[in-house]
Write a structure and sequence with these properties.
about 250 residues, alpha/beta, Rossmann fold, 6-stranded mixed beta sheet, 10 strands, about 30% helix, about 25% strand
Length: about 250
Amino acid sequence: MNQQTHPTPLLEMRDISVSFGGIKAVDHVSIDVHAGEVVGLLGHNGAGKSTLIKVLSGAYQADSGEILLNGKKIEINNPRDARSHNIETIYQTLALSDNLDAASNLFLGRELVTPYGLVDDSRMEAETRKIMGRLNPNFRKFSVPVSALSGGQRQSVAIARAVYFDARILIMDEPTAALGPHETQMVAELIQELKAQGLGIFLIEHDIHNVMKLCDRASVMKNGQLVGTVDVKKVTDDDILGMIILGKKPAIAA
């Protein structure tokens, strides 16, 4: 991706630090994402990647550092603040209500109502069909509880919810974990569609093959610090593995 045409990142986390009881979980880390770009965030458990992303989602507050949206500093003190800046998070658990259908999940807590104040089920289903038609045209199971859906279909519902409410920055926590090859491909296609719509995506991922396939750049963390950020087209799987295990940056870096 030619970043010369995008001098200002869509979102930038600059010099972020977070400590828990004297232990630095995140130590002066800076990452960014451009519109229409997927940035992978890798590292062993405890590397600090989840803590860093939870600062962006509003679940944690940084001790120092700043977050910039389109070059302007913003404050994120809670998840509501993150949403107000069109930052949405799709956790591995997906936070779906199993007993409700796709439309009820999409509008959960933000239900559409009729002029009489009643929940407008038919309008919610129509809107869900519209957004699904854009993201996953093969989705057909609108009237069943999401517990009856496959992993990839559930992921579709979670992504549709974020996109419907105007996400500009999407944080995805291991979206293909526990999915089979067909379902993983479905999620990969969803991510490509979101890229085409100009979203900036942070992808927390353990699988290096997924990173090489889905991401434009990869940022690797180790022991709370940023090892480096690389252009995935310019490195090999082994280069990224070396960053994760040894904390060693390859010779060619983005």
